[in-house]
Amino acid sequence: MRDFLLLLKMPNARSLLRKFLIWKYKHISERQFVYILSILVGFLAGMGTVVLKNLTHYIRHFFNLYIFKDYQSTLYFVLPIIGLLLVYIIKQTWLKKHIGHGISTTLHAISKLNGIIPRYNIYAGLITAPLTVGFGGSVGLQGPAVSVGAALGSNAARLFHMNTKTRLLLISCAAAGAMASMFKAPIAAIVFAIEIFSLDIAFASLVPLLLASVSAVVTSYFFLGTDVLLRFELIDKFEINDIAFYVVLGLVTGHMSVYFSKVFFTITNFFKQFESRAKRLLIGGLAIGTMLFLIPPLYGEGYGIMNNLLKGDHIAAIGRTPFNLDLDNIWIVIGLLFGITLFKAIAMTTTFGAGGVGGVFIPTLVMGSALGNAFAKVINNIGFGFDVSESNFTLIGMTGLMAGVLHAPLTAIFLIAEITGGYELFVPLMLVSAISFAITKYYISHSVYTLKLAERGELITHDKDQNVLMMLEIDKVIETNFVILTPDMTLGNILKNAVAKSSRNHFPVVNESQEFLGVIRLDDIRHMMFNTDLYDKVNAESLMHADAGIINYEEDTMNTIMQKFKTSGAWNLPVIKHGKYYGYISKSKLLTAYRRQLINVTH
């Protein structure tokens, strides 16, 4: 992939591209070309996902074939640390760039970078994620798959000189393609793109999403065959008598989603206090190694847990443990399943903290499957004669955790229904998703993907006006060509060196430390401009006054700035950066920039 990008920089490649673009403008409409690009992006996203899955599979296959049969228990501790060390070396010596969480990074690129994603994101995730997961890091591949696909979509749009709106659409198409290829679930992939990326539901965006999802799924089928991640056929139908248990499961998954989010942010903040990546690797690597040694099911993504629980084989799901436990005792099994639920979130976030690259999507499903299965086992073994379907509750538990943790109830419903054929469970799927999402939303305002973005005012939502304001860059609307006054400047000096040399009608007053003290407007001195007796008697300090408001460069979002103009009634407001005067923003320039950005993202 990198060689292909370098090839495009060659003179002959640029010439061919230029000729193609000229031909395209003459023979293909913009809409038709977007459809073609969506198919291409879907194929590329599908290929990226296939590469991720295959590399991870080959690494695991090597360990299972040659190493695990003799040293399994010890290597549960050692291998994740080796994988994290390899990722650390690659980051430090080759990439030398930050690799963020896939979906969060993509959302930030959409909101603040107009969908421009650096090319290194294409190959960075393809290398580091398989090493993290293949060596046993307790994270998933879905986030890196979305990151790789989004980078491909962004750079494809830039290659063919597409506008901002089309670039954002192609990024969403790539994300949907990655999802469709990973799970072979094209419908859920479209819902995912709309729900997570706050995409407008319109014909113009729906058709490209459909084409990209189908293209990615076909690519996945071609290279990986009909094999699916979750192998399950619905046998037990929904029973209306179980509705009360599903309500309780919704409450349980909702509170467990809150627990997941709290653990994620707490451990993430803990590792942020260590500036040294080596120190993070040492602490995190030892912690994750210890957890995986004590609880082997936490090793890797965890598809084995989900598939075995859906088949009703909890012994295989739990696997071998270093403790001599009686797995014939169902309450010990229930305790272990609850332990997997609790520690999967800790192991996953610790892997991130140690420098691993992966996603939260699949660990969420693993937690949900263990929780749902354990919940059903409790019901069936408390001695009241209840008999519920453990496989169905396993599925519904996955839905509840996904709806709560990711704040994506629709994606949760359609994904589980589509990949398992469990459409007959739509009633409990919707019920548990709604309850879990409502509870999590009450305690945690945003998902693990979006909370930090929302705190910085960088989160894309379905509010188009807010999105446009968010995409504006403050530096592009700040004007710095104002004549600056000092407090001791006399009226004569002000008229000679400021008013006579400037086309502006207001002048900021600052002290020796460049701190903003106030402003003098032309109207403030108009009545004394021709009174020469005052030229040496009146100074700027006696003439200045406070401005209608202050814009804080580090803290105020564009939405906040617009609100300040609205409440103050001012047409110009000063900008303070690092406590010092920086410039002014005019309401007219801000509105002009807003209109231009609105055209970019809607036309």
TrEMBL record:
Listed A to Z, the keywords are: CBS domain, Chloride, Chloride channel, Ion channel, Ion transport, Membrane, Transmembrane, Transmembrane helix, Transport
GO-annotated molecular function: chloride channel activity
Q: How does it sit in the membrane?
A: Multi-pass membrane protein
Look up the domain of life of the source: Bacteria
User: Any idea where the CBS domain is?
Assistant: 478-537
Name the InterPro entries on file: CBS_dom (IPR000644), CBS_dom_sf (IPR046342), Cl-channel_core (IPR014743), ClC (IPR001807), ClC-type_chloride_channel (IPR050368)
List where the protein spans the membrane.
33-51, 71-90, 120-141, 168-194, 201-223, 243-260, 281-299, 330-347, 354-375, 395-416, 423-444
Xref: Gene3D superfamilies: CBS-domain, Clc chloride channel
Q: What stretch or stretches form a coiled coil here?
A: none
Predominant subcellular localization, coarse grouping: membrane
Which Gene Ontology cellular-component terms appear in the entry? chloride channel complex
Protein location: Membrane
Question: By its UniProt entry, which CDD domains does this protein fall under?
Answer: Voltage_gated_ClC (cd00400)
Q: Read off the PANTHER family from this record.
A: CHLORIDE CHANNEL PROTEIN CLC-E
Listed name of the protein = CIC family chloride channel protein
Q: Name its species.
A: Seonamhaeicola aphaedonensis
